[in-house]
Amino acid sequence: MPIFEYRCDRCGKPFEELVFGDAAVECPACQSKAVTKQFSVPARPMAGRAAAPVPACESGMPSSGCCGGGACHQR
Ligand SMILES: [Zn+2]
């Protein structure tokens, strides 16, 4: 089960989120969908950047089509 770590772009709160398919991720504190996915979750055995399932997010792809699954809502 994919657990990703995010940080809210709006209030700066870090949080972890289970991501199911294309479920939207929003900040638990302010409900903002402007969150940035982090890749520093120690619980993930393959947290290496090369093994990241959605490497496009990290390298600053355009917001449209980022991640492909709709889990990333960077603006
Ligand atoms: Zn927030």
Protein described:
With 75 residues, the chain is mainly beta. It has one domain. Helix content is 5%, strand content 20%. It contains 1 helix and 3 strands. The chain has one helix at 55-58, and strands spanning 3-8, 14-18, 35-38. The chain has a 3-stranded antiparallel sheet with strand order 2-1-3, with no helix packed on it. The longest helix has 4 residues, at 55-58. The structure holds zinc ion. Zinc ion (ZN) is lined by residues 8, 10-11, 13, 27, 29-30, 32. Residues 8, 10-11, 13, 27, 29-30, 32 line the site of zinc ion (ZN).
Topology:
Elements: E1 3-8, E2 14-18, E3 35-38, H1 55-58
Antiparallel strand pairs: 1-2, 1-3
Zinc ion (ZN) binds at residues 8, 10-11, 13, 27, 29-30, 32.
Global morphology? globular
Series of secondary-structure elements, N-terminal to C-terminal: EEEH
- Specify Rg, calculated over alpha carbons: 11 Å
Q: Termini separation (Å)?
A: 26 Å
Helical residues, percent:
under 10%
Quaternary organisation of the protein chains? single chain
User: Could you name the ranges where pLDDT drops below 50 across 5 or more consecutive residues?
Assistant: none
User: What is the count of DSSP helices, taking H or I runs of 4+ residues?
Assistant: 1
Give the tally of structural domains: 1
Number of strands: 3
What structural class should be given to the helix and strand makeup? mainly beta
Largest sheet: 3 strands, antiparallel
Which small compounds were modeled alongside the protein? zinc ion
> What average pLDDT do the residues reach?
75
Strand content: 15-25%
Q: Which strand order does the major sheet show?
A: 2-1-3
